[in-house]
Amino acid sequence: MVDLGLFLAYPLLLIAALFALFGILWAILYPLMFLWAALFSSSNLDKRIANLAEREAATLTEFGKDPLSTLRGEYRPGAAESGLVYSSIVFGPSHWHLLITALGNIVGGRIDILHKVVAAARAEAQQRLREQALADGWDEVLNVRLDTAEMTPANRKKGIRAVEIFAYGTGVKYG
Hints:
Layout: H1 4-63, E1 79-91, H2 95-107, H3 112-136, E2 140-151, E3 162-174
Antiparallel strand pairs: 1-3, 2-3
Helix pairs in contact: 1-3
């Protein structure tokens, strides 16, 4: 005959063992992940920016010029077709970037690492807009605008954890 108290204790022991295993793994892996971010997050961001520059150069070669315009320069009249073109990206700094930012906030001044992260996000959104225009067959994208939205998890009272950059404009095909 099985003791009822022991039968009910097994699930609790299993849950306790899983929590203990998670705690041990977290205690070992989190410092390793933090060290990894400290060593490689800046170089990873630099690689993303270099990859973006290559994609941008290829797209500009395909178009022959930059197809994005805010209508401040010259544009051709006589569009045969037009429509909405948009792209977006959600970009966030690593824990290492956030730590450097927190330390920079103590002293004050410019926070270059966040500027670099947001600039990379804007450039990526614009490049995705170029690629979308190319895929849709537009000759040019006029009146390009960038919207930025801060994204914070619901369980946080303050602090930005990611930024969404939304790029949009009017795609134009000339006749």
